[in-house]
């Protein structure tokens, strides 16, 4: 784990080194999960599975890519703290308000979405909260506080 040095002007952040075991490159702000199907080694990560896929688990979210990470490469994944460009989608017919709890959006593999109160994903634990409003259905870089630790 990498802990950002404490100073007055920057918020604290915690990072882990992750290995991109998928075939896609990740951009800064993409949400990633632990790879528990192929690289079960504690560093392998992949994009979350689509809705309805076998083994979908919101609890397996590892964090948010803190930089561009090429396929089959290592890079920094942020697991706790303020991030200025987390990919967030409001979802169909909803919006993300400041302070909204965020969970993995299983239909947009690389994003967070507003936490539901009921329904099939109600058992998914929040992995952060929004620090800026977001009303677009498409994913947008949004300020958020990450809590994947």
Commentary on this structure:
- The chain has one domain (14-147).
- The protein is 0% helix and 38% strand.
- It has strands at 2-3, 13-20, 31-34, 44-46, 61-65, 74-89, 101-104, 112-114, 128-130, 140-147.
- Strands 1, 2, 3, 4, 5, 6, 7, 8, 9 and 10 form a 10-stranded mixed beta sheet that branches.
- The radius of gyration is 14 Å and the shape is globular.
Number of self-contained structural domains? 1
* Strand-residue proportion: 35-45%
Report the helical percentage. under 10%
Order of helices and strands: EEEEEEEEEE
Envelope shape: globular
| Alpha plus pi helix count | 0
How far is the N terminus from the C terminus? 11 Å
Low-confidence runs: none
User: What does the largest sheet look like?
Assistant: 10 strands, mixed
Mean pLDDT: 81
Question: From the alpha-carbon coordinates, what is the Rg to the nearest angstrom?
Answer: 14 Å
DSSP E strands, number: 10
SS-derived structural category: mainly beta
